Amino acid sequence: MAAVGRDPALPASSGLPWENGGVPLTAIPARSSRDLLLILATHPLGEADRIIVGLTAHHGMLRAVAKGVRRASSKMGARLEPFMVADVSFVSGRSLATITQAVTVKAYSAPLVADWDAYLAASAICEVADRIGQGEQDTAAALFPLTAGALSALARHLHDPRDVLDSYLLRALAAAGWSVSTNRCVRCGGEADLLGWSVRDGGAVGSGCLEPGDRPLRAGDLDRLDALARGDWAALDSADDDASRRRTGRLVRASVQWHLDHAFRSFDLLEERPR
């Protein structure tokens, strides 16, 4: 599988100020840190505070308290919602950091919540990013542009939301160290007669290596999985086999749950979504 990179549709297209540090904030205390924060989830804390969970561009995963943001008078609360990117100043703590300032850089929430399919895909992306981002800091740093780019693609309706999600999931797995094999048997390395998919081993399986539990591949499935892993949007956008899209989506999600050893609630909603 090709390395995870910035293809035109996902990571690089979000328009975020990766190099210039974002928009200016007011005076930042010397012991504070400043970074771009992609908010994945929020949780209420006490009567007026909120815990913010997100990916930063340079500091890995951030779990921080935003004090008073649930009050109606708070100006910062609207800048710290899921599916948003903010330029934040924060002070590290023993268990949780404290966000002291925030300026909105990108707000993807409005177009996402207006489109149920895009919203479901975005929710799954954020849930998986939260899980993978808890690993090494380098992994979280690689996830930041990938996740922001995926949300941007969904918000702008560039591709089918299911394709954006499945491509993101395979690339996020690769960033975490679990690249799938789409052109060679994951067990023997052979290239011929790739007729099955091993969720456990992470890739295609040749006819001579099939084992109980391997999932069958039908015509076009392996080509779609390869296009998803590489981010080949020309191939994905021109494909009209919705049955193959559903089959490969299930394979991708099963692989993610196996390797991350976690059952994602958003995946259940995707299965329940009528087509």
Question: Would you mind describing this structure in some detail?
Answer:
With 275 residues, the chain is α+β, with helices and mostly antiparallel strands. It has two domains: 19-107, Nucleic acid-binding proteins (OB fold (Dihydrolipoamide Acetyltransferase, E2P)), CATH 2.40.50.140; 111-272, de novo design (two linked rop proteins), CATH 1.20.1440. The chain contains eight helices and eight strands. A five-stranded mixed barrel has the order 1-2-3-5-4. It has a three-stranded antiparallel β-sheet with strand order 7-6-8, with no helix packed on it. Mean pLDDT is 87; it is low at 1-15 and 17-22.
Mean pLDDT: 87
Order of helices and strands: EEEEEHHHHEEEHHHH
Q: In which range does the helix fraction lie?
A: 25-40%
- Structural class assignment: alpha+beta
Task: Name the overall outline.
Answer: elongated
Total tally of structural domains: 2
What is the terminal-to-terminal distance?
A: 30 Å
- Rg, alpha carbons: 20 Å
Report the CATH architecture of the largest domain. Up-down Bundle
The CATH topology of the largest domain is what? de novo design (two linked rop proteins)
Q: Report the total helices.
A: 8
Please outline the major beta sheet. Answer: 5 strands, mixed, barrel
Fraction in beta strands: 15-25%
Low-confidence stretches: 1-15, 17-22
Spatial sequence of strands, sheet with the most strands: 1-2-3-5-4
